[in-house]
Write a structure and sequence with these properties.
Strand content: 15-25%
Mean pLDDT: 74
CATH superfamily of one domain: P-loop containing nucleotide triphosphate hydrolases
Bound molecules: adenosine-5'-triphosphate
CATH topology of one domain: Rossmann fold
Number of helices: 11
Helix content: 25-40%
Length: about 400
């Protein structure tokens, strides 16, 4: 489907409408039905707008973007460097907020009851490495396992699997002494640690050798097979995304297409996804209006040299969403209190100048930032002791 809202959603089953709905005008019934279908998706983004910069000099990064990620699928999000993939993922995991638009994650809005964000229903591997350098691999896994409410023996089992699967070095090696590629794999392992329902991976295969890359994809295919797990993945290797169930081709702040790889290839009569993307980009380029030209991310796709932004990236500390950090962070969380979106600091207080309720609650609240669980206390204690100890001198 091109340049339109995705509709890969099941129809609502026949149920007896509530008295409210019976009494309402017809249009309310259809609104309710579409809200229902949005909530059935793993992720559903509607009419998303996001800009950086000032009002006078805005950098429009997301521009009326719609995205539908069905449960139990792998969704490959592709686009040239700077087109807004990381920004979109950050909004999905609740690290940033949209200017306008709606996001539903596992049935709720990020930061609200039942959304699973923040929480252990979601595993997020951010693009940047943001681990505690003075932790060993094992300590890193223990720390995040406890944060996610896992027991020590469960963590140990999972650790052995992940060390093997991701071809990691000895569990006793300190993170700061690992190569960049190894650190990225530790970061990936952290996202997989608690076996989340929704995995959001921002370029997990960068710097990974082709054999391991293939086994990572095999694993993703395997975990989504029974329909209970969903993966959103961005990658520089456009052809590897053929293994995804759905591909979202992103350019200039929107999705040019959202379809299965096979449908895209046959629809555009192309041999490769890269060709499809070029065709669509040219088409969009020729339709471009003034507003779109103002968008900063019209990077030629031909080169596909997808570099990195040099902006510092905010990392949520101890939130159970991102949790990876070289330094202590006061990253804000987002909650949605009756129609409005608010920022919150990790201590639950609204930042200066912002009003709001301090509750950030969700159904599976044992891991929410609002509650301090035994595991979380243990993890924080371990973190502070280790960091103090290893930084002596
Ligand atoms: N915190 C920020 N403040 C201002 N501008 C930002 C910020 N973060 C990103 N941008 C800008 O927003 C645009 C989209 O960036 P984003 O990181 O989302 O792109 P991307 O598609 O993930 O790129 P890449 O593939 O290189 O990681 C870029 O022009 C970038 O410079």
């Amino acid at each position: 489907m091109l340049l339109t809202e995705a509709n890969a959603t099941p129809d609502r089953p026949e149920t007896t409408p509530s008295p409210d709905v019976l009494a309402s005008p017809r249009n309310l019934q259809s609104q309710q039905s579409s809200l229902w279908t949005r909530r059935q998706q793993a992720v559903c983004v509607r009419h998303a707008f996001k800009q950086y910069g000032s009002k006078r000099n805005p950098n429009h990064v997301l521009s009326n973007l719609n995205m539908t990620v069905a449960k139990g699928t792998i969704y490959g999000l592709l686009g040239a460097s700077g087109c807004g993939k990381t920004t979109l993922l950050s909004c999905i995991v609740g690290r940033r907020r949209l200017n306008t638009g709606e996001i539903y994650v596992l049935g709720g809005r990020p930061g609200t009851k039942g959304s699973g964000v923040p929480g252990r229903r979601v595993g997020y591997m951010p693009q940047e490495i943001a681990l505690y350098g003075e932790f060993s691999i094992r300590e890193t896994m223990m720390y995040f396992g406890w944060i996610f409410g896992m027991g020590t023996s469960e963590i140990n089992d999972r650790l052995q699997f992940l060390l093997n699967f991701l071809d990691l070095p000895s569990e006793n090696r300190l993170v700061k002494n690992l190569s960049g590629g190894q650190q990225r794999r530790v970061s990936f392992a952290v996202a997989l640690m608690h076996d989340p329902e929704l995995l959001i991976l921002d370029e997990p295969t960068v710097g990974v050798d082709p054999l391991l890359r293939q086994s990572i994809w095999n694993h993703l295919v395997q975990i989504t097979k029974d329909g209970n797990k969903t993966v959103i993945i961005t990658t520089h290797y456009i052809e590897e995304a053929r293994q995804a169930h759905t591909i979202g081709l992103m350019r200039s702040g929107k999705l040019l297409a959202e379809e299965s790889p096979q449908v895209l290839l046959s629809m555009y009569g192309c041999q490769s996804l890269e060709e499809v993307f070029l065709k669509l980009s040219r088409k969009q380029g020729s339709n471009c209006n003034v507003t779109e030209l103002n968008i900063s991310n019209n990077v030629s796709l031909a080169s596909l040299h997808w570099g990195r932004k040099d902006e510092p990236v905010y990392v949520t500390d101890e939130s159970g969403v991102v949790g990876l950090n070289f330094h202590q962070s006061k990253e804000v969380l987002i909650t949605d209190s009756s129609n409005g979106l608010n920022h919150y600091e990790m201590n639950g207080r609204a930042p200066k100048g912002e009003k709001g309720d301090t509750s950030v609650d969700c159904d599976d609240c044992s891991d929410c930032c609002q509650l301090t669980t035994v595991g979380k206390m243990r993890a924080l204690l371990q973190k502070n002791v280790l960091r103090m100890w290893r930084n002596v001198g």
